[in-house]
Amino acid sequence: MCSYSANRGIQQVHVDLKVEAGRELVHRLLGRADAMIESYRPGVAARLGLGYDEVQATNDALVYCSVSGYGQIGPYARWPAHDLNWLALGGFLDGGSRRENGAPSLPGAVVADTIGGYSAAVAVLCALVRRGTTGQGAYLDVSVMDGVLRMMQFVLDGQLAADPATRLLTGGSAGYDLYQAADGKWLAVAAIEPHFWAALCRGTGLANRIPDQDDPSRQDLLRKELANAFATRTRDEWVHELGPVACVSPVNSPAETLADPQLRSRQLTVDVQVDGRPVRQLAPRLAVPDPPDLAEQPAGPTPPRLVDETFREFGLADDEVAELRATGVVE
Questions:
Q1: Burial degree of 262 (CB within 10 A; 0-12, 13-18, 19+)
Q2: Active-site residue 27, yes or no?
Q3: Cα 6 to Cα 11: distance, rounded to the nearest angstrom
Q4: Of 16, 113, 141, 146, which is the active-site residue?
Q5: pLDDT for 211-248, tens place per residue?
Q6: What is the pTM of this model?
Q7: DSSP assignment, residue 69?
Q8: Is 113 a catalytic residue?
Q9: In sequence order, what E strands does the chain have?
Q10: Burial annotation 289-305 (CB, 10 A radius, 16+ → b, else e)
Q11: CATH number assigned to the domain with residue range 2-154+301-326, chosen from the 4 options 3.40.50.10540, 3.20.110.10, 1.10.760.10, 3.40.50.1820
Q12: What is the C-alpha to C-alpha distance for residues 116 and 118, in angstroms, rounded to an integer?
């Protein structure tokens, strides 16, 4: 499947790259493209005739981005893997919570894939900015595994420097932990700065503990006293009182997250059309305002009419488009 951005927004179309006509079509599109992102295993794009050398011959100003699990080089480059594998190798799982048998817990989200996607997007945008100055295209080797390491930078830099202070965010501080409220729900407390710690202590009736924030010998005691304090009221009562002053937030379920007034106020969901009916999804945007106009855009492959109009803009004649569809090169 190929996705490309045209005057009508992001469009998706299925192209059979195993036949010469499909590869020729993609090369024609790439002749006017700014960037290409491929996520095959190393070497597959080249076998299909869409490796960097072949594509550069079509458009030497193109930004070509290869996204793979372990990158294009290294002993694991051709290994199959998924999100959990990259998080395990990168040290992410080891630093999280543990099950009763001591095993690391599964993450609550697709973490590595997400950071890998953002890494690719940022790399492409940076290369396009550079091209605007130099006129040169670029080849980008983006690894999901590398993205996990960047996400772990605070912890890994501390490991490299043998700095115990980096344990602050990984269980070394009572002011940066999870606590259960009276209703069984949980709170996230991240009172790192002294004024937030002071507000937390005053709000929980532990003002006498304000001077003990950085005392390593007191952390277990502080954690116990905070746990006892939080067990006296409901989660939402604590959030109402401490959220505005002490870096305290609810540990929401996915359903609670979608209903949270903060998310709702920023309009982070949108209805898209799937098989003629609206389906609510998270909006694919990074900033507010200027929400994307996706209400009328269907999920999945773009309707043939819109694709054909775009093909014409790229110089394909109507009979060529009809032949591509009749032979199954394009769906």
A1: exposed
A2: no
A3: 7
A4: 113
A5: 999 999 999 999 999 999 999 999 999 999 999 999 99
A6: 0.81
A7: S
A8: yes
A9: 2-6, 9-13, 35-38, 63-68, 138-143, 176-180, 186-190, 248-250, 269-274, 277-282
A10: eeeeebeebbeebbeee
A11: 3.40.50.10540
A12: 5
What confidence score (pLDDT) does residue 5 get?
A: 54
- β 248-250/269-274 pair status: unpaired
Cα 183 to chain centroid distance, Å, stands at 32
What's the length of the chain?
A: 331
Q: Where are the domains of the chain?
A: 2-154+301-326, 171-251, 260-300
Rounded Cα distance between 142 and 120, Å, is 6
Are 68 and 97 within 8 A, CB to CB? no
Residue showing tokens 């389906």: 279
Same fold, 2-154+301-326 and 171-251: no
Cβ pair 63, 124 in contact under 8 A: yes
Return the closest-CA partner of residue 201 out of 175, 232, 172, 167.
Answer: 175
Identity of the residue numbered 128: L
Q: Does domain 171-251 have CATH number 3.30.1540.10?
A: yes
- Number of CB atoms found within 10 A of residue 286's CB: 7
pLDDT tens track for 154-201? 888 888 887 766 677 777 899 999 999 999 999 999 999 999 999 999
